[in-house]
């Protein structure tokens, strides 16, 4: 039997979620249980606006996600930075184009995980995932939370992003804080755990 395909699909304005996405991929690949594809949500902002936001260029080697990708995936890990505690418009704009997949039930039963970034500790390390769940639920997708799979989630000795909803980082208001070693380890753990759950589920 061929390995299940896990797609890691992310949006990142300033690179924090992109860094987490690399670690999620590392975790998925560590298990050797799944094949991994990486995609980006398409940008909706103009170059002029992105320049004014001091946003770096996107990774040219990571293709934009398509509806066909969602159909091809056996399971999907979504990553995005918070916008007022919710997913960004870039993610919602793409998701709002999935009506045909919804009506055909194409995503029914596919497993999904979520990881994220916020500027501040209380800025959405739980709500950013929680408020995305209706998008999964309406498609009949199966949310796989991280739970407390990493002991770093109990660590109060320093700032550690992430929550039982998924891996996360805390970027600071000016984006100056980069994902810490512990946050990167949590992302690897989430990738590993997600691969194991997906492989276990799909082999039955
Ligand atoms: C319009 C807008 C709204 C935002 N809302 C929040 C918020 O509610 N809470 C928060 O902590 N950060 C908020 N941020 C900060 C982003 O989440 C932060 O820039 C992001 O996590 C960095 O990730 P990235 O480098 O992958 O883009 C907001 C940023 C923008 C541009």
Automatic annotation (TrEMBL):
One of its GO terms (cellular component) is membrane. Gene3D superfamilies: 3.40.50.360. It comes from the Eukaryota. Pfam families: Flavodoxin_1. Residues 6-194 form the Flavodoxin-like domain. One of its GO terms (molecular function) is FMN binding. InterPro entries: Flavodoxin/NO_synth, Flavoprotein-like_sf, Flavoprotein_WrbA-like. PANTHER family: FLAVODOXIN-RELATED PROTEIN WRBA-RELATED (PTHR30546), FLAVOPROTEIN-LIKE PROTEIN YCP4-RELATED (PTHR30546:SF23). Belongs to the WrbA family. This is Flavodoxin-like domain-containing protein. It comes from Smittium megazygosporum.
């Amino acid at each position: 039997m061929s390995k299940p395909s896990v797609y890691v699909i992310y949006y990142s304005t300033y690179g924090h979620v992109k860094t987490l996405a690399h670690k999620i991929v590392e975790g998925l690949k560590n298990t050797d249980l799944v094949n991994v594809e990486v995609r980006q949500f398409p940008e909706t902002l103009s170059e002029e606006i992105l320049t004014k936001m001091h946003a770096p260029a996107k990774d040219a080697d990571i293709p934009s996600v398509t509806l066909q990708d969602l159909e091809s995936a056996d399971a999907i890990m979504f990553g995005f930075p918070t916008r007022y505690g919710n997913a960004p418009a870039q993610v919602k704009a793409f998701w709002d184009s999935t009506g045909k997949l919804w009506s055909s039930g194409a995503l029914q039963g596919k497993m999904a995980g979520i990881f994220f970034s916020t500027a501040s500790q209380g800025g959405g390390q739980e709500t950013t995932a929680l408020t995305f769940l209706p998008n999964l639920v309406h498609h009949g997708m199966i949310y796989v939370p991280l739970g407390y799979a990493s002991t770093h989630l109990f660590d109060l000795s320093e700032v550690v992003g992430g929550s039982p909803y998924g891996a996360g980082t805390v970027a600071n208001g000016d984006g100056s804080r980069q994902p810490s070693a512990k946050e990167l380890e949590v992302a690897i753990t989430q990738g590993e755990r997600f691969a194991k759950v997906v492989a276990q589920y799909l082999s039955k």
